[in-house]
Amino acid sequence: MSSLTKKDRKHLHTIAFYNLENLFDTKDDPYTLDDDFLPKGKKKWNKKRYEKKIYKLGKAISSVGYDAAKKAPAIVGVAEIENKRVLEDLAQSKYLRKKDFGVVHYDSPDERGIDTGLIYQKRYFDVQHSEVHSLDLVDEVGRPDHTRDILEVTGKLNGERIHVLVNHWPSRRNGADETKHKRITAAKKAQEIVTNIQDEEAHAKIVIMGDFNDDPFSESIKEHLVSEDLYNPMETLLSYSKGSLNYKGDWNLFDQIIFTHNFFQTEKGTHRFAHADVFNDRFLAEWEGRYKGNPFRTFVGRKYLGGYSDHFPVFIQLKKQ
Q1: Rounded-to-integer distance, Cα 122 and Cα 125, Å
Q2: Contact, 211 vs 255, CB < 8 A?
Q3: Above 90 in pLDDT, residue 111?
Q4: Is 86:25 a contact under the CB 8 Å cutoff?
Q5: Does 98 fall in a domain?
Q6: What is the phi/psi pair of residue 52, to 5°?
């Protein structure tokens, strides 16, 4: 997309998603399991390390899609944030503060205390409504299994009404097969939200983003989320050498952005899909060694590396017609 004219760039807007890898502040929250991320915790998480991470994440976010659009993303969904304060600190970081980012956040019931959230440039996106949808999960013995809510944000992107769902589905920590049913439940919930939106607004334009903890061809995504009304551009991006995270030498694309087919329509005053990609610029990756090319993460276990995140951001670009 390097051959775009200045006029084309003006009408090109980026929507991104980024798992921020445990963006915790340094204050103890007695209601969450944040003890590791305290100055005296296992990870020795202090003000200097926190501010360094905020600075780096702001730089990364401001760069997503910049080569083509020549501006920071209009909308960024995020995962693994502790609270509203860390999102506000991110919005006020060096590379983002002059862009006037607004913040949408709700505390979720997740026992670790991590939430989803959304930041947006007010000049491009006007938030009209937001709410969260909880997932009804149970553990192996039938007790409630608390996880992240699905965040729904409705607003006008350059005057056009769109709906954004931000997800962070249950992890594979206890095994992919053993936890698959939880992600299928999450997929069904997301699809239910889409259906409800479409029942009220027949031609609604909807963007579903998140860390799904499953790849584009996993059962939860392919069979329970992506219906005939939805398109997943991430299906063509995952390969043996490309993804949004790497586990034991294998790439996964758990971070995805999916949208309704009406983003392909050509109608003046609306947004049309132009491009999708993983943002894996060199500065976000390990530069050398056995993990060269992998996301440059903040921690490996207790070992502090000082990087950005263990995930790369993903993004789509829309052209205002």
Answers
A1: 5
A2: yes
A3: no
A4: yes
A5: yes
A6: -65, -40
Question: pTM for the whole thing?
Answer: 0.96
Measured CA to CA, the distance from residue 10 to residue 29 in angstroms comes to 43
- Cα separation of 98 and 75, whole Å? 15
Summarised one tens digit per residue, pLDDT across range 218-270 is: 999 999 999 899 999 999 999 999 999 999 999 999 999 999 999 999 999 99
- According to DSSP, residue 262 is labeled G
DSSP 239: B
Tokens of 7: 């006029």
Residue type, 14: T
- The parent domain of residue 307 ranges over 6-124+210-220+231-320
**Continuous H helices in the chain:** 6-10, 47-63, 66-69, 84-91, 176-200, 219-224
Contact status, residue 210 vs residue 118, Cβ threshold 8 Å: no
Angle separating helix axes 84-91 and 47-63, nearest 10 degrees: 60
Bridge partner list, 104? 118
Q: Say which amino acid occupies 107.
A: D
CB atoms within 10 A of CB 239: 9
* CB contact at 8 A, 77 and 117: yes
Per the CB < 8 A criterion, the answer to whether 86 and 45 are in contact is: no
When divided into structural domains, the chain yields a total of 1
Rounded Cα gap, residues 24 and 302, in angstroms: 15
Look up the CATH number of the domain holding residue 252: 3.60.10
